[in-house]
Specification:
Layout: E1 3-9, E2 12-18, H1 24-34, E3 43-47, E4 50-51, E5 67-73, E6 81-88, E7 106-110, H2 115-126, E8 133-139, E9 144-155, E10 160-161, H3 164-169, E11 180-197, H4 198-218, E12 277-280, H5 301-315, H6 323-333, E13 339-345, E14 351-357, H7 362-373, H8 378-385, E15 393-397, E16 403-405, E17 424-431, H9 443-446, E18 450-451, H10 456-466, H11 474-481
Parallel strand pairs: 1-5, 6-11, 12-18, 13-17
Antiparallel strand pairs: 1-2, 3-4, 3-5, 6-7, 8-9, 9-10, 9-11, 12-14, 13-14, 15-16, 15-17
Organism: Brettanomyces naardenensis
Region (Disordered): 204-268
Protein name: DEKNAAC103664
Length: 498
């Protein structure tokens, strides 16, 4: 149902009706056109002397029926500063795409910037193709290599921008993004360009690889680059090159292939803790998530009987006890925690697992992280040597967010008795002063990091979901319900022959 709105400007009024899905930025453009204002980017809409967020639709703006708004000229020139958080959805069937770190997805722009310039800036920061992205995938069912192009699609609460021309003509202000914090979602629409025979492509790649080897064997000092043709080849990890060998009269020119550095060549920490494991999200394989059917949560007869027995056991009137006796009984029933398996999650989603004793304090946890796990920059090393508080980060629980470690005054707290940590706990790492670090864990641990799929609980969940379900047929269920089966039933329950 359309709702009436009145906009006033210099003792003049503009009355119109808006649908519930119409945005307030559209109302601003209509008002500026009615009052013959050329530059709508320098005006704002106010309601009761308060600025209105132009990115919201009318139904979410919390404006009453027949509200009267005021058109006011903005005080900032050249557009206000806005903070944009970009959510990048991985393109479909693109093996070369890597999810960017969350710290690089939050950037500041001017409200007058266009969407094309915003995506272009993110492309330079993330060092990933976002506008003109191409890739390929191998379809083994049809035996073809399919080459694809990906068209960017930007979405926010105001609408969806699909075409490249709309990206160039649309600005942040036209979407209602004038100031404050906002989020944009970037998706990719896959368009298949052409397909080639998979066997033929692989043969051509083998022939090219042999030609490159022959050229390297002829002249090892010159390595010719293989040009990419309409596709982006998967990026291989950079490895350090070995020094060139000196040629002698009796020796042939050979080139050693580049080798990945082993763990022995990496610097090792002073003391490797038992149970220290590092999980990296970059190596994690994506698992297709399917919502289970509602019938999975239906209670069986055995579960209902067990639940009924539990309720009857709790409702049984036992002997009256004092408060001290009840606490003593609860403490004897509660499990005793002897060791704590602590997982620390960093801002780049890297997770480090430590095993400490229940009697250890936060000082042991802090010293373990600083001396062996965390990658320290120059400022953090200087803070450790200074006379001020050396703790440059905070540790807090995930939900509810309770700060466990904030300063050196918390070093005397024990993990279980004072902090309330259980046998398995997850702590979130947050820096007091934000830094521009690409990684927070030392490189020697990241080299041997495991994917998140290797966690024990995730493996158990995958094993439970992959187990074949034993489903009974309708005949087996009916055979079990028949009274003339092997089960003994009363005579009155048996059906007669007539």
């Amino acid at each position: 149902m359309p709702q009436s709105v009145t906009v006033t400007y210099k003792f003049r009024e503009f009355k119109t009706s808006l649908s519930a899905s119409a945005t307030l930025s559209q109302l601003l453009e209509q008002s500026c056109a009615y009052f013959h204002v050329s530059d709508s980017s320098s005006f704002e809409l106010h309601y009761r002397n308060n600025e209105i967020d132009l990115s919201l639709p009318f139904r979410l703006a919390n404006l009453p029926q027949g509200s009267k708004l005021t058109l006011v000229k903005s005080g900032s020139s050249g557009g206000a500063s806005v903070t944009i958080k970009l959510q990048v959805i991985a393109p479909e069937r693109d093996p070369t795409f890597e999810q960017p770190p969350p710290s690089k997805l939050v950037q500041k722009f001017r409200s007058t910037d266009g969407l094309f310039d915003v995506i272009l800036k993110y492309e330079s920061i993330l060092e990933t193709k976002l506008l003109d992205r191409t890739s390929y995938y191998d379809d083994t069912k049809i035996g073809k290599r399919v080459y694809c192009e990906y068209q960017p699609v930007v979405q926010n609460i105001s609408g969806v921008i699909e075409n490249a021309e709309d990206l160039k003509s649309t600005s942040l202000r036209s979407l209602g993004i004038t100031k404050g914090n906002h989020s944009l979602r970037l998706q990719f629409r896959r368009v298949e360009v052409r397909a080639e025979d998979l066997e033929k492509v692989k043969k051509d790649e083998e022939v090219k690889a042999e030609e490159v080897k022959e050229e390297e064997a002829r002249d090892p000092t010159e390595v010719k680059e293989v040009k990419e043709v309409n596709i982006q080849e998967p990026k291989e990890p950079e490895v350090p090159k070995k020094p060139k060998e000196h040629l002698t009269d009796n020796s042939q020119a050979t080139v050693d292939p580049p080798s990945i550095p082993s763990t022995a060549s990496l610097p090792s920490p002073a003391k490797v803790l038992p149970g220290l494991e590092v999980y990296s999200p970059k190596l994690t394989k994506r698992v297709s998530h399917q919502d289970p059917d509602d019938s999975v949560y239906d209670m069986t007869v055995e579960q209902a009987r067990a639940y009924q027995a539990l309720l009857s056991k709790r409702a049984t009137n036992g002997p009256m006890m004092t408060r001290a006796q009840r606490e003593k009984l609860n403490s004897s029933r509660s499990p005793v925690v002897t060791e704590c398996i602590i997982r620390v999650r960093f801002p780049d989603l890297t997770t480090v697992q430590l095993i400490l004793s229940a009697s250890d304090t936060l000082k042991e946890l802090y010293s373990t992280l600083v001396e062996q796990v965390i990658y320290l920059n120059d400022k953090e090393r200087a803070s450790l040597d200074g006379e001020e508080d050396p703790v440059f980060f905070e540790l807090m629980t995930l939900h509810p967010q309770v700060k466990v470690l904030t300063s050196s005054k918390d070093f005397g707290k024990q993990l279980v008795s004072h902090c309330g940590l259980g046998r398995r706990s997850l702590l979130v790492y947050r820096e007091k002063k934000p830094s521009d670090k690409d990684h927070y864990v030392r490189e020697e641990y990241l080299a041997n990091a495991k994917p998140l799929n290797d966690m024990g609980e995730i493996r158990l969940e995958e094993a439970m979901t992959t187990e074949p379900e034993l489903k009974k047929s309708a005949n087996e269920i009916a055979r079990g319900l028949r009274p003339n089966g092997t089960k003994k039933v009363p005579k009155w329950f048996k059906f007669g022959k007539k």
